[in-house]
C-alpha cells in the first residue's frame, strides 16, 4: 500500500488536477486530448497570457525580479527544434508558463566554439530573433548573470556538466534549481550535488515528467483505493533492431539510467522503492534480452534490448516494469496497469487516441521538431508552472508531485543496483 506521505502527495496532485479541470477548462480543440492534458490551478491573474513585445516594453522582460513572475535562467539550450532546453525556452517565451519569464539563456558552445558551425548558425539566428522580440539575454557563462528577484535556474545541458553548473548557479544566489534527468553521471556526483545544495539552502527539483502525467496519476488513484493490488509500468520506445548498436553507444550509461529512469523515479516517489527497501527482484527471463553490440566507434557495449522484472519492497508493495527499446512501431508509448488477484482491473495509456492524432498532425506540420516534444508538451508546462509558482510562494521543500534531488539519488542508486544484478541473472 502507499505510505501516508505518498498518499498525501498523490491526493494533492489529484485534487489540483481535478480542480483545474473545472477552473481552466477550455472548449476542446480538434485533435487535442483533454484527457491526456496535465492541468494545474491558475489564479485569474496568473491565467492571463504574457504580454507580447507589441504591447509590453522590452524592459519589462529583461533581467529583473517580480512578485507575479519568476525569472528563469535556462542553462544549456541546444539546437532549435532538437534540444530539450530549446523547447523549455520556447514554452516560456510564448507564454505557456504564466508565472515564468525567460530572462537569460546560457549556451557556452553555440555562443562560443561552435558558433560558426551549421547548428551554431541556426541557434544564433534564433537567439537574435528572441533578443529582439522578448529582450532575453544570451550569455556564454553563468558568470555574466545577476539575480535581481525570485529566480529558477533550469539546467538542461550535458549530464556530465551538471555538477559544475549546479554549483555555479547556486553560488550566484538563485532561489531554486530545476535539473533535467538523470541529474549526474553517477550516484556519488549526484549525492555531492545534493549536499552542496542542502548546505546552501537551495532546493533542487527534477524534470521527471511522468510524475505528473495523467496516465500515471489515474492508475495511482485506482491502486490507492484497491488494497492488495499490484501495478505494472510498461514503457516502449520505437527503435528498430538494426538501430540498437548506435543507441547502445549514444546511451552508454545504460537503459536503466536512461530510458527506464523515469519509471524508477516513479517507484521511488510513490512506492518507496530504495536499494535498502528492496526485498526481492524477480527478472522475467522470457521477456528480457541482454545484448553485446558493436557501436559506430567500434567499441562493444552490453545493455538491455528489453527487460522485465518485478520488485517487492519490505513494505509489501509489488511493482513490475516492462521496458522495451523496440516495443513500438508508432513513436513509443507508456502504460500503467493495476491488477488484483492476477486480473487486470485498470489500464491507462499515453498517448491516447486523441493525443496520437494531435501528435501526428503537429509532426506533419513541423517535421523538423522532435516528436516527443508534442507528446509530452503539457507535462513540461506543468513542471515549470509548479516550480515557478513554488519559488514565488516562498514555500519550503518542493511542489507536491514534483520529484526532488532526493528522489533522483534514490532512482539512480536503484538503477546502479539493478543493472549488474539483472544482467547477471539474465545471462545464465
Shape, principal axes of CA atoms: globular
**Which regions are unreliable across 5 or more consecutive residues at pLDDT < 50?**
11-66
Q: Cα-atom Rg, whole angstroms?
A: 21 Å
Helix content: 25-40%
Describe this protein's structure:
The structure is a single chain. By secondary structure, the protein is of the alpha/beta class. Helix content is 38%, strand content 20%. It has twelve helices and 13 strands. Strands 7, 8, 9, 10, 11, 12 and 13 form a seven-stranded mixed β-sheet that branches. Strands 3-2-1-4-5-6 form a six-stranded parallel β-sheet, with helices on both faces. A hairpin with a 4-residue loop joins strand 10 and strand 11. Helix 1 packs across helix 7, helix 9 crosses helix 12 and helix 10 packs across helix 11. The longest helix is centred in the last third of the chain and has 23 residues. The chain starts with a helix and ends with a helix.
Please supply descriptive tags for the structure shown above.
13 strands, 12 helices, seven-stranded mixed beta sheet, alpha/beta, six-stranded parallel beta sheet
Topology of helices and strands:
Blueprint: H1 4-23, H2 44-47, E1 70-75, H3 84-93, E2 100-106, H4 118-134, E3 137-139, E4 151-155, H5 162-171, E5 176-179, H6 187-200, E6 204-206, H7 214-224, E7 230-236, H8 244-250, H9 261-270, E8 278-283, E9 289-294, E10 300-313, E11 318-324, E12 333-340, E13 343-350, H10 353-365, H11 371-393, H12 405-426
Parallel strand pairs: 1-2, 1-4, 2-3, 4-5, 5-6, 7-11
Antiparallel strand pairs: 7-12, 8-10, 9-10, 10-11, 12-13
Amino acid at each position: 500500500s502507499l505510505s501516508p506521505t505518498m498518499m498525501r502527495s498523490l491526493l494533492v496532485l489529484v485534487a489540483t488536477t481535478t480542480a483545474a479541470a473545472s477552473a481552466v477548462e477550455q472548449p476542446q480543440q480538434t485533435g487535442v486530448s483533454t484527457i491526456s492534458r496535465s492541468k494545474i490551478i491558475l489564479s485569474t491573474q496568473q491565467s492571463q497570457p504574457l504580454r507580447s513585445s507589441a504591447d509590453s516594453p522590452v524592459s519589462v522582460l529583461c533581467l529583473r525580479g517580480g512578485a507575479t513572475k519568476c525569472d528563469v535562467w535556462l542553462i544549456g539550450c541546444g539546437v532549435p527544434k532538437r534540444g530539450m532546453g530549446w523547447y523549455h525556452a520556447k514554452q516560456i517565451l510564448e507564454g505557456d508558463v504564466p508565472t515564468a519569464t525567460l530572462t537569460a539563456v546560457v549556451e557556452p558552445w553555440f555562443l562560443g566554439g561552435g558558433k560558426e558551425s551549421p547548428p551554431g548558425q541556426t541557434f544564433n539566428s534564433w537567439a537574435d530573433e528572441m533578443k529582439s522580440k522578448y529582450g532575453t539575454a544570451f550569455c556564454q557563462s553563468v558568470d555574466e548573470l545577476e539575480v535581481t528577484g525570485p529566480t529558477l535556474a533550469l539546467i538542461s545541458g550535458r549530464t556530465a556538466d551538471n555538477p559544475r553548473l549546479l554549483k555555479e548557479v547556486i553560488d550566484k544566489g538563485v532561489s531554486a534549481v530545476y535539473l533535467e534527468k538523470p541529474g549526474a553521471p553517477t550516484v556519488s556526483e549526484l549525492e555531492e550535488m545534493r549536499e552542496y545544495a542542502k548546505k546552501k539552502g537551495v532546493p533542487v527539483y527534477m524534470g521527471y515528467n511522468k510524475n505528473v502525467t495523467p496516465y500515471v496519476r489515474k492508475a495511482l488513484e485506482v491502486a490507492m483505493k484497491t488494497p492488495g493490488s499490484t501495478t505494472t509500468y510498461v514503457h516502449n520506445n520505437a527503435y528498430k533492431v538494426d538501430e540498437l548498436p548506435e543507441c547502445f553507444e549514444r546511451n552508454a550509461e545504460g537503459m536503466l539510467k536512461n530510458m527506464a529512469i523515469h519509471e524508477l523515479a516513479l517507484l521511488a516517489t510513490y512506492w518507496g522503492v530504495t536499494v535498502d527497501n528492496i526485498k526481492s527482484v524477480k527478472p522475467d527471463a522470457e521477456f528480457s534480452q541482454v545484448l553485446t553490440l558493436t557501436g559506430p566507434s567500434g567499441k562493444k557495449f552490453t545493455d538491455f534490448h528489453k527487460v522485465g522484472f518485478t520488485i517487492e519492497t519490505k513494505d509489501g508493495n509489488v511493482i513490475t516494469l516492462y521496458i522495451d527499446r523496440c516495443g513500438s512501431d508508432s513513436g513509443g508509448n507508456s502504460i500503467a496497469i493495476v491488477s488484483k488477484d492476477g486480473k487486470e482491473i485498470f489500464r491507462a495509456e499515453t498517448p491516447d487516441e486523441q493525443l496520437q492524432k494531435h501528435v501526428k498532425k503537429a509532426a506533419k506540420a513541423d517535421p523538423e521538431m522532435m516528436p516527443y516534444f508534442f507528446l509530452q508538451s503539457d507535462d513540461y508546462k506543468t513542471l515549470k508552472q509548479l516550480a515557478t509558482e513554488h519559488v514565488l510562494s516562498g514555500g519550503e521543500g518542493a511542489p507536491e508531485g514534483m520529484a526532488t534531488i532526493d528522489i533522483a539519488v534514490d532512482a539512480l542508486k536503484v538503477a546502479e543496483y539493478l543493472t549488474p544484478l539483472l544482467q547477471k541473472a539474465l545471462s545464465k
